Structure formats: structure tokens, C-alpha cells
């Protein structure tokens, strides 16, 4: 399974850049494999992202903004959903991955099952 993060390398928005860096930095720090898909330089990436963000996750007006996160082709969420999962020690579940043994998330899951 490959985590795909759709980003815009040439975004004029510092908020978008910060959110993208936050997601990518977390994945790198936790050694979670991922692919960056740049929608600013690749029209196919932009079109695919826009078509595959579910209707109920789209903004009322305009297009979904990066970062958008997928596991293969399954939509996992945007930055706000990622942030909430991170705050709740549930990022691996959010990404559709198994939490590694010894991680905070694995400990939380073990306590919930006990």
C-alpha cells in the first residue's frame, strides 16, 4: 500500500505550504512510505485528485485544496482530518495502515482491546 499526498509545489499560500510540510514531515519522521504527487506541475495529478476527493469532502465552492491524502486510490482525508488523527494518536488508522508495535497508537489500541 502506498500513501499518496497530493501537494502544490508552487502554492502562493503560506498556509497551504505549512500544512503540506506538516504532513510530509510527520510521514518522514515516522518512516511511513509515501509518494508526493505535485498538482502544480502535473495536470494529470491535479485532475485525478479533483475527481477522486469524495463529494462530501469537497468545499462548497471551488476545488479541494492540497494537501489531500490517499492510500493507493482510497481517499483518506485532507489536512484537517490528518491533524485530528494526529492529535488523537490515530494516524496509522487514518492512513489505513497497521500501527507499528511500541508506537503510541499501538499502545492506545491495545488498551482499548483489553
Automatic annotation (TrEMBL):
Pfam families: SH3BGR
InterPro entries in the record: Glut_rich_SH3-bd, SH3BGR, Thioredoxin-like_sf
Primary residence: membrane
The protein, known as: SH3 domain-binding glutamic acid-rich-like protein
Quaternary structure annotation from Swiss-Prot or TrEMBL: Monomer. Interacts with PFN1/Profilin-1. Interacts with ERBB2. Interacts with ATG12. Interacts with BECN1. Interacts with translating ribosomes.
Subcellular location as annotated: Cell membrane; Cytoplasm, Cytosol
Any one GO cellular component localisation term in the record: cytosol
Molecular functions (GO terms): protein-RNA adaptor activity; SH3 domain binding; ubiquitin-like ligase-substrate adaptor activity
Family classification: Belongs to the SH3BGR family.
One biological process term in Gene Ontology: proteasome-mediated ubiquitin-dependent protein catabolic process
Main function: Appears to function as an adapter protein that bridges proteins together or proteins with mRNAs. May function as a ubiquitin ligase-substrate adapter. Additionally, associates with translating cytoplasmic ribosomes and may promote the expression of specific mRNAs.
UniProt entry keywords in alphabetical sequence: Cell membrane, Cytoplasm, Membrane, SH3-binding
Source organism per UniProt: Saimiri boliviensis boliviensis
Amino acid at each position: 500500500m502506498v500513501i499518496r499526498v497530493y501537494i502544490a509545489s508552487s502554492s502562493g499560500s503560506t498556509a497551504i505550504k505549512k500544512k503540506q510540510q506538516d504532513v510530509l514531515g510527520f510521514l518522514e519522521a515516522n518512516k511511513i512510505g509515501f509518494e508526493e504527487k505535485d498538482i502544480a506541475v502535473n495536470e494529470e495529478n491535479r485532475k485525478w485528485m479533483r475527481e477522486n476527493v469524495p463529494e462530501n469532502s469537497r468545499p462548497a465552492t471551488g476545488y479541494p485544496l492540497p494537501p489531500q491524502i490517499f492510500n493507493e486510490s482510497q481517499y483518506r482525508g485532507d489536512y484537517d482530518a490528518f491533524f485530528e488523527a494526529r492529535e488523537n494518536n490515530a494516524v496509522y488508522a487514518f492512513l489505513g495502515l497497521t500501527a507499528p508495535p511500541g508506537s503510541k497508537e499501538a499502545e492506545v489500541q491495545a488498551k482499548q482491546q483489553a
